[in-house]
Amino acid sequence: ATRHLKPFMKLIAGLFVIFGIIGCSLFGRILPTQFGNMALTQFTLLQLLTLDDWFEILQERSITLRSFVF
Q1: Which of 16, 22, 24, 54 has CB atoms 3.0–4.6 Å from 41's, for a disulfide?
Q2: Does the CA dihedral 17-34-68-70 come out positive or negative?
Q3: CA distances from 56 to 31, 34, 48, 70 (A)
Q4: Distance (Å, rounded) from C-alpha 46 to C-alpha 52?
Q5: Could you tell me how far CA 9 lies from the centroid of its own chain?
Q6: pLDDT tens readout for residues 10-44
Q7: Helix segments in 1-70, DSSP class H
């Protein structure tokens, strides 16, 4: 059964890395505590994927944007 899951897991891992690179380059300067390097970005993506503390990430982002605007 695991033999049939290997291609699927490789695909998911590849997409996870690609989205990690994109997230790190787009949000690294805005939220360095969560997207500052690749390890933090992977952890944050895992949090967002599992919906674990996603609201705290959203709140920190909105607070950061307010400080830039005002």
Answers
A1: 24
A2: positive
A3: 12, 11, 10, 21
A4: 8
A5: 18
A6: 999 999 999 999 999 999 998 899 999 999 999 99
A7: 2-27, 32-35, 38-50, 54-69
